[in-house]
Amino acid sequence: xxxxxxxxxxxxxxxxxxxxxxxxxxxxxxxxxxxxxxxxxxxxxxxxxxxxxxxxxxxxxxxxxxxxxxxxxxxxxxxxxxxxxxxxxxxxxxxxxxxxxxxxxxxxxxxxxxxx
Length: 116
Fold this sequence. Notes:
mainly beta, two-stranded antiparallel ribbon
């Protein structure tokens, strides 16, 4: 399991998980963070690094808005799984499921878990 802490997580969660988590999964460079923005509007805290050394897969949240989109300028895939929790303004709890096989990201599914 790979995870990061978010803005409402307590000190115990923050001790266990980092703010940014970058790792290789098979042949895919993955970067997970909580507040990352999206193509052409990356958060100021990640903007320089993502432009200088883009991952192949960038996963972030915070907005609670499910979004999957390519960043053609940087050659990466951006994913925001929405929100699975019961806190926040989202109406439907969502998550993403996908496979990484070698260098390929495939079989992406949106999973809705109903109203919060």
